[in-house]
Design brief:
2 domains, alpha+beta, about 35% helix, 2 helices, about 260 residues, 6-stranded antiparallel β-barrel
């Protein structure tokens, strides 16, 4: 069955048919021709250039907008995570202030001093410049440092202990080092535990399944003047095991750590 066109549209249809046929011919010529210098090939290039440029522009526009959309989505996701971490840390600091005041009141009753003496030191090397879960700082024997001294971030987060000293530098072993044990306590319940370093700033605590632990709960070290060790991030339970595993990390990003405070006394 033949398609009938009105007189005004018949001419347009013929032009479209011929134009399409010529376009296909030129494209095939471009594909199979051995040289780009032949007249018909040059004609094909000139004829198809606007379409190719339009295609390239469309692809470029799509790639740019897709990348922008993807980056925006990732940024929103990262911001959500950062907000959550910030909220947890703020809560931990508030609880830490409350605990600090409580300790201060108790110590005042027994006339026990709470002041600490610090040595400020710059971080010279950190992972991956040195072994993971270790730091090198620019204070040593000349500044009064000795092995075993506690090293903190901002004076309230326990990072680790001085493991080796020279005249003007020291090596710090982080408490998250593999199989390093730290006596710790859950601040909400007061439950004393042992936090096991798993490497890469990670920790694990094993407890009976019957013990109630909450995501976001603060963990400090077990001392008269406690320091923040971490915040519960994940709890893993297995029906086949009578124990649960609690996972957390050092509550800061070492990449942005420039200075530490070493506790001398």
């Amino acid at each position: 069955m033949k398609t009938k066109f009105p007189p005004s549209k018949k001419k347009t249809a013929l032009v479209a048919y011929f134009g399409g046929a010529i376009g296909i011919f030129l494209i095939l010529l471009l594909i199979f021709s051995p040289s780009l210098n032949q007249p018909l090939v040059r004609l094909g290039l000139e004829a198809t250039k606007p379409f190719l440029l339009s295609k390239i522009k469309m692809e470029k526009w799509f790639r740019i907008n897709s990348a922008v959309f993807h980056e925006k989505k990732e940024l929103i996701k990262e911001l959500d995570v950062l907000k959550e971490k910030t909220g947890q840390l703020e809560a931990a600091l508030l609880e830490g202030e409350s605990l600090k005041q409580e300790n201060k009141n108790i110590l005042s009753l027994v006339n026990r001093k709470q002041e600490r003496n610090y040595v400020l030191a710059a971080v010279l090397f950190k992972p991956p410049q040195v072994f993971y879960d270790s730091l090198v700082i620019d204070a040593g024997i000349n500044q009064g440092l000795a092995p075993g001294m506690a090293v903190t971030a901002y004076g309230n987060i326990l990072l680790g202990y001085v493991s080796d000293v020279s005249s003007s530098a020291s090596k710090v072993k982080l408490i998250s080092s593999l199989n390093e044990e730290t006596n710790a306590v859950f601040q909400d319940s007061g439950l004393s535990v042992v936090a096991l370093g798993k490497g890469g700033e990670n920790f694990e605590i094993s407890l009976p399944r019957s013990v109630e632990v909450k995501i976001g709960e603060t963990i400090t070290n077990l001392e008269i003047n406690p320091l923040l060790v971490g915040i519960v991030e994940r709890i893993e339970k297995n029906d086949a095991s009578p124990f649960q595993k609690i996972f957390f990390r050092l509550p800061l990003n070492l990449n942005y750590l420039r200075y530490v405070l070493v506790i001398k006394s």
